[in-house]
Amino acid sequence: MNSICVFCGSSPGADAQFAAAARALGKLLAANGKSLVYGGGKVGLMGILADAVLAGGGQVIGVIPQSLVDKEVAHFGVTELKVVCSMHERKALMAQLSEAFVALPGGIGTLEELFEVWTWGQLGLHSKPYGLLNVNGFFDPLLTFLDHATNQRFLRPQQRELLRVSTDPAELMEQLARQQPMIEPKWIDRDDA
After folding, report:
1. Core-most of 41, 122, 153, 190, by most CB within 10 Å?
2. Strand 3-7 and strand 130-133: pairing?
3. Which residue ranges make up each domain of the chain?
4. What's the pTM value of the predicted model, to 2 decimals?
């Protein structure tokens, strides 16, 4: 994995550990020669993460729609800033440029991006790994819900297991590197019919 897409908040959040985790992940990516692909913002965890990768001598590719450039939130100090027309184009290009996906704490945009790449994986549109950096239990309620959805048979256990989770950036990157891709999606068991 040479390029890692990170979804995260355009806010630093309420807990200083969120920013610390973004910095730690950024330093780790740079130290290991991994390029960061992200949403192109200079604000919140996005900016903190990008600045940490740059400070470590790493490469940062930002992908941002023109509408957000117009709102003056674009990070013009990144290695490469790709300005696109729409959010749909942004997400598609980020996915195309990346070999794995990580979500840091964030709001509905972060969750939507993560769930979209997870859905694409479930549909067999890609076999790239994805995971959560669960900083200070931020994603615990979400993980409880995902277990509930699995127990209620709306999410297959093998699909649930594909979402890697760790509290440590290095451990999460190791999990993603070891993940075996799902070759072919399994749609309906005879027991489900």
Report:
1. 41
2. unpaired
3. 3-178
4. 0.91
The pLDDT value given to residue 180: 61
Q: d(Cα 68, Cα 33) in Å, to the nearest integer?
A: 28
Burial (CB count within 10 angstroms: exposed 0-12, middle 13-18, buried 19+), residue 140: exposed
Q: Are 3 and 115 in contact (CB under 8 A)?
A: no
What element of type H or E holds 126? none
CA 62 from chain centre, in angstroms, equals 13
Does the structural domain 3-178 have CATH classification 3.40.50.20?
A: no
Q: Helix 169-178 vs helix 16-31: angle between axes, to the nearest 10 degrees?
A: 50
- DSSP tag of 136: G
What is the longest distance spanned by two Cα atoms in the chain?
A: 54
What is the C-alpha radius of gyration for the chain, rounded to an integer number of angstroms?
16
Choose among 36, 50, 41, 43: nearest CA to 5: 36
Q: How far apart are CA 71 and CA 76, in angstroms?
A: 13
Distance of alpha carbon 188 from alpha carbon 132, whole angstroms: 27
Q: Using an 8 Å Cβ cutoff, are 64 and 124 in contact?
A: no
Answer whether 168's CB lies under 8 Å from 135's CB: no
